[in-house]
């Protein structure tokens, strides 16, 4: 596999935090080592079984019923003084170890997934990395699409706990597969070496002859599989990406049903969704062709492998130089050695899928890290001042383009300010910068202490009850029920009071634009901020309601300084000063 080094380095970076740095690392490592030990025990039981079957076939050849029964039900004493346990005991041990290993592995996987999901979520949401990523993307170009998929499917696929994860394709299964195959290889090679001593290959005595046959045969298979299977990696990667794009398209359509219905956009939606699906289909067909070719190769190779030992040592058996038991044991051990050698080749499709998952998680991880690091660059923000002071604050777009001349203004507490200016001048961008979330501004901002609330034009209404939406982002338990009711009444939404705790209502779909804006104002009443920034947050209201809401805000929040972006000249009378943002740097003027 080309570039295996960087993939393994990425996988290690994703693997390490839980097992070596998390608070549950001791338990995690103990469980990991336990499943490893159980895997080795299973492999060694397999080795024991080949010796057991050697004795069994010999007992059959010699028609020795007593030994045969002992090998099934009890144990058979050996000339060396040791004894061979019967099938009953071996099988019971196999079942016990197998079931315990399965349980412990799955328990570890779900704990790991829970931890890793929590860790990724926390870092993605910290320092507003999620926001920067969504507005700016990332230079690698592949690290940030569909973060939802990375946080759900990819982590589940990496840790191996989740309904959609194909068994055997996760990190732990691959690690255990690798471990048991390495142990298998060593254990069976020793057996094969011993057997080689008394088993001529094609009638010739070659030291370790059987091992060489198995090695050459497996290397041939590995090379062939690699050549056919290497394109699978990219195909898998894109398959996951297209699937996520399609799901995202469907979610967007679901969330915008009204907009689509009002504009009659069904035909276009259908065409767009089918176009995205076309990519899934096209890629899947290429994937399928590759998989078919690969399977045809591995199955043919497997068929040859099952008869090869008989061809190689059959002549010795017919010349009575080895017993039936030895013939069968060589066949079994040869199969195991060949199987272990070709593990890499057989696992190629799985490794390709795993590699795509690692790639998606690692690039996302890097994008989150660089977004968090970049949060410290750009504009210098200093908190704890007595006012908002902007010094040479230059707004810019993600592509570096400037939005007007730098701003040098001060917004003092107690002086309500109206901001206006032509559409696209950068008013909302200025708010984003003041909030500290816009990563593409330069200069220096001093911000006052105290609570600040920004209300955008389209308020975010989270999933849950109306009470939850009103209290957001505070917890419902932290807000007095009476205060919630009063806030709704003051925002002219008294009709909704009886529905405060009604579950399963899609409030975004149900409330009108103006009602959603008034809901956000009610939220401001509950939050009681020292500074309230309104970005056209009353624009959906009729002029009378807009005026009434501003009066209500002033009455209910007397200690709050309001800074509002508005296009409606009628609201100008509510503000003490006016900032016109027209690209020339903006100057504050006292209201008439
Ligand atoms: N994420 C982004 N990527 C690229 N350009 C952006 C992005 N966000 C905003 N812009 C651009 O920045 C410019 C300023 O946008 P902004 O929303 O600040 O304008 P505005 O003055 O608030 O406009 P309006 O009055 O229409 O709301 C616009 O040209 C807009 O297209």
From TrEMBL:
Xref: Gene3D superfamilies: ABC transporter type 1, transmembrane domain, P-loop containing nucleotide triphosphate hydrolases
UniProt-recorded Gene Ontology molecular function terms: ABC-type transporter activity; ATP binding; ATP hydrolysis activity
Pfam families: ABC_membrane_2 (PF06472), ABC_tran (PF00005)
GO cellular component: plasma membrane
ABC transmembrane type-1 domain segment(s): 45-353
Keyword Nucleotide-binding: yes
Keyword Translocase: no
SMART domains noted in UniProt: AAA
PROSITE patterns to which the protein is assigned, alphabetical: ABC_TM1F, ABC_TRANSPORTER_1, ABC_TRANSPORTER_2
Listed transmembrane segments: 27-52, 82-104, 172-190, 210-229, 291-313
Membrane topology: Multi-pass membrane protein
Entries under PANTHER family matching the protein: ATP-BINDING CASSETTE, SUB-FAMILY D MEMBER (PTHR11384), LYSOSOMAL COBALAMIN TRANSPORTER ABCD4 (PTHR11384:SF59)
Designated name of the protein: ABC transporter ATP-binding protein/permease
Organism whose genome encodes this protein: Lichenicoccus roseus
Lineage: Bacteria, Pseudomonadati, Pseudomonadota, Alphaproteobacteria, Acetobacterales
